[in-house]
Amino acid sequence: MPTGVIINAASVLLGGLLGGFLGDKFSEQFKNDITLIFGVCSMGMGIYSIAPMKYMPAVIFALVIGTGIGLWMHLGQWINKGAVEMQKPISKLFPNSKTEMSHEDFVNTLVTVIVLFCASGTGIYGSLDNGMTGDTTILISKSVLDFFTAAIFACNLGYVVSIIAIPQFILFYILFLLARFIFPLTTPNMILDFKACGGFLMLATGFRMVKLKMFPIADMIPAMVIIMPLSWIWANWFLPLL
């Protein structure tokens, strides 16, 4: 059962409904301060995942090469374009009712939220981890953050935020299913390095949430694909030579 995936999608759905109902009852200071806490929690989850790392050179190499691949492919730009296309039918069903927001601000903010929930390194890492190991810790922890984050964004965007739970569930469930085919080919050390690589993405996500440094999270995603092969190569090809 994709328990973590279901809980994560449900948290966005319920958070979006709650925020849409409450509207502008939260102050701007409250929204800004609580977002900082979300960022710190994401950083803490990242550090926790990095700590058991087995082969640091493999993880660092995966991050550098993977991000290079993402930048070369303009992966972040493609994800942003996909988010723009995704929001068009959603915004027609749920037009912006917040008169203080311009249409351009509404669209830009909605695109940001779609990318945050559907293409975050934490969600991708958590879905793969749930499918490979059955561990729902990352996705459940992320769900707590997503619930409140969705509620805060929905205060400005309205109920449209809750609809993002649908494409989020579809994407994460596909990753969950693919992970089952990957797991038999892995070793415990490869899993530890995979978690560590995801931890770095979560740490970078935290920096973005507190607006300290805007790391190219979407472009870093290919690192999650190549980390386990690189971990195996390091353990079997390079370590015997050292």
From TrEMBL:
PANTHER family: INNER MEMBRANE PROTEIN (PTHR36111:SF2), INNER MEMBRANE PROTEIN-RELATED (PTHR36111). It comes from Companilactobacillus bobalius. The chain crosses the membrane at residues 6-22, 34-51, 57-79, 106-128, 148-178, 221-239. The keyword Electron transport does not apply. It comes from the Bacteria. Keywords: Membrane, Transmembrane, Transmembrane helix. Pfam families: DUF554. Coiled coil: none annotated. The lineage of its organism: Bacteria, Bacillati, Bacillota, Bacilli, Lactobacillales. This is DUF554 domain-containing protein. InterPro entries: DUF554.
